[in-house]
Amino acid sequence: MRNSILAGLVFIVVVLASNSLFVIKETEKAVMLQFGELVSESIAPGLHLKLPWVQTVRIFDARIQTEDSNPERFLTLEQKALEVDSYAKWRIVDEGQFYVSTRGSAITAGNLLASRINDGLRDQIGARNLQEVVAGERDQLMLDLTTDLNITTAADIGIEVIDVRVKRIDLPDDVRSSVYERMITERNREAQEIRSRGDELAIGIIADADRQATIFEAEAYRDAEKARGEGDARATSVYAEAYSKDPEFFAFTRSMSSYRETFSSKADVFLLDPDSDYFKYLKNGTTAP
User: Fold this and answer.
1) Higher confidence at residue 255 or residue 126?
2) Nearest partner of 158 among 208, 207, 96, 251, judged by Cα
3) CB of 121 within 8 A of CB of 75?
4) 65-170: which CATH architecture?
5) Are the beta carbons of 84 and 74 closer than 8 angstroms?
6) Please, which pLDDT band fits residue 288 given cuts at 50, 70 and 90?
7) Measured between alpha carbons, how far is 133 from 169 in angstroms, rounded to an integer?
8) Phi, psi (5° rounding) for residue 282?
9) How far is it, in rounded angstroms, from Cα 55 to Cα 38?
10) Contact, 171 vs 85, CB < 8 A?
């Protein structure tokens, strides 16, 4: 009988201890409720006591969590539709407000955050054109959105938005073809402009090359004529100098050269006076007195 009573007391102590003691890990946050009302909003990690069956503890994951939103359609500043697929990283910073706003449900918190992200993306994308959204100001857009969200999420939901990122930006299927056609047309126009500028430069280069070639040819012809004139002058000077030394011999050589050219063709016929001075070097092989 005594052992049964002792066993019963031990059982009661164990039950009371299991319902009175609780542990909060470093990766967790918790709030304490008494008859369903919030009595402690922040409980530090470690071993704690509570009133059994009167107080209850709700424990939440304090680590960074991810909210992966469904793709949504937004309009840019120039009213071009985009399908944006985004996600957000968040964590609990106010356990009490988190419990009040979501009843401690991370799914509810994610849904509330996703709704605010969509509203923020609609505002941020609507203030920018397509180029800025896709490439030019994409990082700044995410930074502005994160900053704007954190102004209200801590006070309203009890969470902090660490980062918002866009995984993918696509054109809707119903406008993708027309946008691609406009892009192709624009690229063809730019290519044609580049070709036109290239043709213009080519014409200028060819004209300059032709002008320089003409100048080079003219200068070369001038130099050639100058060299030819100097050669002719030098030859004339040499001939004159030679003639002055022996005029008779010079006349003889010129006559021989004339004979050679004159009688080179057997078909030619000449009627000349034998006593002509033209034949004076052929009469007796001696020079005329």
Assistant:
1) 126
2) 96
3) no
4) 2-Layer Sandwich (3.30)
5) yes
6) very low
7) 9
8) -110, -5
9) 10
10) no
Within 8 A by CB and 6+ apart from 126, the residues are: 74, 75, 76, 77
CA distance 151 to 147: 7
Q: Name the amino acid, one letter, at 29.
A: K
Query: Side chain identity at 9, as an amino acid letter?
Result: L
If you write DSSP's letter for every residue of 166-226 in order, what string do you get?
Answer: EEEEE--HHHHHHHHHHHHHHHHHHHHHHHHHHHHHHHHHHHHHHHHHHHHHHHHHHHHHH
Amino acid 287: pLDDT: 47
Contact status, residue 164 vs residue 119, Cβ threshold 8 Å: no
- pLDDT for 47 equals 85
What DSSP line would sit under 33-64, residue for residue? EETTEEEES---SEEEE--TTTEEEEEEE-S-
Residue 266: pLDDT band (50, 70, 90) is: low
Do residues 172 and 73 lie in contact, with contact meaning Cβ atoms separated by under 8 Å? yes
Domain boundaries, the chain: 2-61, 65-170
Q: What is the mean pLDDT of the chain?
A: 82
- The pLDDT of residue 263: 65
The Cα–Cα gap between 87 and 275 comes to: 125
Residues in the chain: 289
Among 36, 80, 56, residue whose Cα is nearest residue 180: 80
- Which amino acid is it at 64? I
User: How far is residue 27's CA from residue 120's CA, in Å, rounded to a whole number?
Assistant: 30
Does the pTM surpass 0.85? The reply is no
